[in-house]
Design brief:
The complex is a heterodimer of chains A (374) and B (507). By secondary structure, chain A is an all-alpha fold. Chain A folds into two domains: 26-45 and 334-374, no CATH class; 64-329, ABC transporter involved in vitamin B12 uptake, BtuC (Orthogonal Bundle). Helix content of chain A is 76%, strand content 1%. Chain A has 16 helices and two strands. Chain A has a two-stranded antiparallel ribbon with strand order 1-2. Chain A is globular and about 75 Å long. The model of chain A has no long low-confidence stretch (mean pLDDT 87). With 507 residues, chain B is of the alpha/beta class. Chain B has two domains: 5-237, 3-Layer(aba) Sandwich (Rossmann fold), CATH 3.40.50.300; 255-345 and 422-499, Rossmann fold (3-Layer(aba) Sandwich), CATH 3.40.50. Helices cover 33% and strands 26% of the residues of chain B. Chain B is built from 17 helices and 24 strands. In chain B, the strands form six sheets. Chain B has a six-stranded mixed sheet, with helices on both faces. Chain B has a six-stranded mixed sheet with strand order 18-21-22-15-23-24, sandwiched between helices. Chain B has a four-stranded antiparallel sheet with strand order 2-1-4-5, covered by helices on one side. The relative contact order of chain B is 0.11. The model of chain B has no long low-confidence stretch (mean pLDDT 91). Classes of the chains: A mainly alpha (374), B alpha/beta (507). The A-B interface holds A 15-16, 227-230, 232-233, 235-236, 239-240, 242-250, 362, 366 and B 15-16, 57, 305, 307, 326-332, 337, 339, 344-351, 355, 359-360, 362-363, 368, 371-373. The structure holds adenosine-5'-triphosphate and magnesium ion. The site of magnesium ion has 6 residues of chain B, from α1.
């Protein structure tokens, strides 16, 4: 007779936990995406492929704490938009409007940041909140349209993305326009999100207190979804609208609230992106990419707040890897986008992987069981 | 003669449960082989293994004497195996025609050959008297018709080994008669049928042999002509089952639920589906609305519970006018509802059993404090319901509702609604999909509630159930009240005349 070992315990754990299997599937997707990236690099330039690949993976540690700080700095807005998309998704809504909410939030944050200098040391807090509120408002609109007029939130949000973008360029031009460089003024120093101890800790990286906002929002959304009656309702509506109505839940209220909260989170992302030195609202007609990246991160994070946090940090580290890749080798940083895209495609096959994982584990377990019986 | 199907030593496990434990089943060509067993005994699982939806961990399958490896439903189709699932697998927004040809499309240079398919479907539907409009959308047709679509789907694929998983649970008695005839005609042509059902009379009526499962194990295979209903029930449940119930005399109290002049219209066709319906239910009585499916019962219940708006009329619950109150208000004033469609309204399939059991009450102080759910209270409430209503599943309170067997899903809903302890309970087809033991339990429970002074409005298509439980019977025909009866002074035959519209009492 063979004793039960930790391997059996581990196998049992994975076999009995669907979450564990899902997480494993995500990890496999990531590895698969990275392999795709490596293959492309091998095709483009075999001699430098491996060096480049290690830059992608470990670029994060290139300049010690500074590059880690910068990685987190990149990751924060992505985490937030990812949370925004994931939260709405748990209520059964596809928030493709994160970029619009982010832009809308960014404008109001910067507007407050440029003008309301009388606020003193509260200035950045108020500017940040202004961004969150504006985003909330912008998320509420498709929520209301969906709740009261049954307008598909995807269509409404896509259109509102453009409205937000043009609104922002128009408002920039008429209110906070810096004629000489043809873009918006940057926020006053008092409105910039403080770096505090990150300054010394990360050796002068760009990281600021935005990181705490990301952590805080992750924690709040996690608690809402996992532990509260409000989250219970939201998920219930997301899973089965008819049953939720049957149970007397107010579906309209839930849809509006979910979209408003999702919008607020994207709005915060916009504020955090622009309440920094050296980044300015432009008058170009481009949708800000971070909103769409949020969709990818939300997918990779399995629409769970903590998953999104991890996926966002992973995304940030790829970004920073891509940055160094460009500096040190011939490879274009777009390679990173290809890798991300491959990961997303592969995670779309997640179900398939889950089955394979499940079966493989099961086989292992059976084999071990038989060994035990002998 | 070699059997068409032989399943040898089939074992299928799910995390936490052995759903099929070394099961052996053999089906002869041209027979109707019934599969009988309690809720959760593993019938659907065994058939899903045969149909390629699950892979068994152990065991062999032989089709027409050949050992086969059925990896997915396509393999099953190739072998001529077709299945009508307990919960249909149709695309709601597709037409009947599209659903039938889905996955089996004939194409000509990339274009669907729909005209030929339509022709073939029309022929099949005439040959087997399965009347259907090929262009209707699935979501617009009744469950009985949806089932015809599932049957046509099998016939269209030329399947000759047909699996029916509780086909009659969703049918009216008339439709059941039809289906029995169709099944007999199908085996006469040399096809073979495996029929899962909880209704012993149906087994007596059409089946040649019956295999009994209990808790994942095979108990026996019997010739039906040697078996009585009592015997079957006992073999299946492991104890004697009462087919007759003691019922205390009718002693109604005050009226607590009432509706007057209820009228509802179909928003699309503008036809009145419920017109001028009226009834009262008093404390301590079970009032039944009897009728053939599609005569407005479903809509009436939606109107009473608030799932659909009403056009005219007054609904009174505990003395309050609730005609236009939101659903939550009605629930709070004291209305419980066991819905007809358990997967659409009754359950959130992706929630655990425990979470499903608090669907109406999650906001009450016993399950939350300051907006935070009380996990422990929820868990212990779930344990209570699981225990009392014998809800069986693989992981107890933490099982996903989706993974539970159909009958156990129904038991969970029944337990939840009854435990809400409301003054009025609307029970629509409450025992749909339950095994005989569970039906006996639920019937007793409903009678006990009545004796405690609850008012129960029962909507049922099963005349047996209607006669056994009701204190008063109201027949509904084409959305109207056509007569009220005392079950002691009427017969199923008399009710039938009113239900089919041949007779009506003037009010
Ligand atoms: N996908 C699954 N995951 C986990 N457990 C499952 C799954 N499918 C079925 N089970 C469990 O296996 C057991 C057998 O289920 P099955 O659906 O075969 O029962 P059944 O005999 O068809 O019952 P019913 O008469 O209620 O339809 C049940 O306890 C059920 O909870
Ligand atoms: Mg079943």
């Amino acid at each position: 007779m063979r004793e039960k070992t930790w391997v059996d315990g581990l196998l049992d754990y994975f076999l009995n936990s669907s979450t564990a299997v899902k997480v494993l599937a995500s990890i496999i997707a990531i590895v698969g995406g990275l392999i795709v990236g490596l293959v492309i690099m091998l095709i483009l330039d075999p001699s430098r492929a491996f060096a480049g690949f290690s830059t992608i993976l470990f670029g994060l540690f290139r300049n010690g704490t500074q590059s880690i700080g910068n990685m987190l700095y990149y990751a924060v807005p992505i985490i937030l938009t990812g949370l925004s998309v994931a939260f709405a998704f748990r209520t059964g809504l596809f928030n493709i409007g994160a970029t619009g909410q982010l832009t809308f939030g960014a404008f109001f944050a910067v507007y407050v940041g440029v003008n309301w200098t009388f606020l003193g040391s509260f200035h950045w807090v108020v500017a940040l909140l202004a961004g969150g509120l504006a985003g909330a408002f912008w998320g509420m609109i498709p929520g209301m349209l969906k709740a009261f007029r049954n307008v598909n939130e995807v269509v409404a949000s896509i259109m509102l993305n453009y409205v937000a973008m043009y609104f922002s360029t128009l408002m920039v031009k008429t209110t906070i326009y810096n004629q000489s460089v043809a873009r918006a003024f940057g926020p006053a120093e008092s409105a910039q999100i403080p770096k505090g101890f990150f300054e010394t800790l990360t050796n002068g990286s760009s990281l600021n207190y935005g990181l705490f906002v990301a952590f805080l929002v992750t924690a709040i959304l996690h608690v809402i979804l996992a532990k509260t009656t409000f989250g219970y309702q939201l998920k219930s509506v997301g899973f089965n609208r008819d049953a939720s109505r049957y149970a007397g839940m107010n579906e309209k209220r839930n849809i509006i609230l979910a979209m408003t909260i999702a919008g607020a989170v994207s709005g915060l992302a916009g504020a955090i992106m622009f309440l920094v030195p050296g980044r300015f609202l432009t008058i170009e007609s481009n949708l800000l990419q971070e909103g769409f990246t949020g969709i990818a991160v939300s997918l990779l994070g399995l629409s769970s707040p903590i998953g999104v946090l991890i996926a966002g940090i992973f995304y940030g580290s790829l970004e920073i890897g891509g940055f160094y890749l460009q500096v040190t080798t011939q490879f274009v940083p777009e390679l990173i986008e290809i890798i991300i895209a491959a990961i997303i495609y592969i995670s779309a096959l997640a179900l398939f992987f889950q089955n394979i994982i499940y079966k493989t584990l099961k086989k292992r377990k059976d084999a071990r069981l038989e060994a035990t019986h002998e | 003669m070699t059997p068409v199907i032989e399943m040898n030593g089939i074992t299928k496990e799910f995390p936490g449960i052995i759903a099929n434990d070394n099961i052996t089943l053999s089906v002869q060509e041209g027979e109707i082989h019934a599969l009988l067993g309690e809720n959760g005994a593993g019938k659907s699982t065994l058939m899903s293994v045969l149909f390629g939806l699950y892979r068994a961990e152990k065991g062999k399958i032989l089709v027409r004497g050949q050992e086969v490896d059925i990896k997915n439903p396509n393999d099953a189709n190739e072998l001529g195996i077709g299945m009508v699932h307990q919960h249909f697998k149709l695309v709601d927004t597709f037409s009947v025609l599209d659903n039938i040809i889905l996955g089996y499309e004939d194409v000509d240079r990339g274009f669907l050959k729909k005209d030929e398919a339509r022709q073939k479907i029309i022929e099949l539907s005439e040959q087997y008297k399965l009347k259907i409009d090929p262009d209707a959308l699935i979501r617009d047709i009744s469950v009985g018709q949806q089932q015809r679509v599932e049957i046509l789907k099998m016939l269209y694929r030329n399947s000759d080994i047909l699996i029916f998983d509780e086909p009659t649970a969703v049918l009216t008695p008339q439709e059941i008669e039809e289906l029995m005839k169709i099944m007999k005609a199908l085996v006469k042509e040399g096809r073979s049928i495996i029929l899962i059902t909880h209704k012993l009379n149906e087994i007596q009526q059409v089946a040649d042999r019956v295999t009994i499962l209990r808790k994942g194990k095979k108990i026996d295979t019997l010739d039906v002509k040697d078996a009585t209903n009592e015997m079957l029930a006992e073999r299946m449940v492991g104890r004697k089952v009462l087919f007759e119930l003691e019922k205390d005399p009718h002693a109604p109290g005050e009226t607590v639920f009432e509706c007057e002049g209820l009228t509802m219209r179909d928003p699309k066709t503008q036809k009145a589906v419920v017109s001028d319906m009226h009834f009262t239910v008093r404390q301590g009585e079970i009032v039944t609305i009897a009728g053939i499916e599609g005569n407005g019962q479903t809509e009436m219940v939606y109107g009473l519970t608030g799932l659909k708006p009403i056009e005219r009329g007054a609904i009174t619950l505990n003395g309050q006018d609730i005609s236009h109150e939101p659903i939550l208000r009605r629930n709070l004033i004291g209305l419980a509802h066991i819905p007809e469609d358990r997967q659409r309204y009754g359950l959130v399939l992706d929630y655990t059993l425990a979470n499903n059991l608090i669907l109406h009450n999650y906001f009450e102080d016993r399950f939350q404090s300051r907006g935070f759910l009380d996990k422990q209270a929820i868990e212990s409430f779930a344990e209570h319901v699981i225990d009392k209503y014998d809800v069986r599943s693989s992981n107890g309170a933490d099982s996903m509702a989706r993974s539970m067997s159909g009958g156990n899903q129904q038991k969970a809903i029944l337990g939840r609604e009854i435990e809400r302890d409301t003054d009025v309970i609307i029970a629509v087809q409450p025992t749909r999909g339950l095994d005989v033991g569970a039906i006996e339990f639920i019937h007793k429970e409903l009678l006990a509630l009545r004796d405690q002074g609850k008012a129960i409005l029962l909507i049922s298509l099963e005349l047996d159930e209607v006669m056994r439980l009701s204190d008063r019977i109201i027949v509904m025909y084409e959305g109207e009240h056509v007569g009220e009866f005392d079950p002691a002074k009427t017969s199923p035959e008399e009710l039938g005349l009113y239900m089919s519209g041949s007779k009506r009492k003037e009010a």
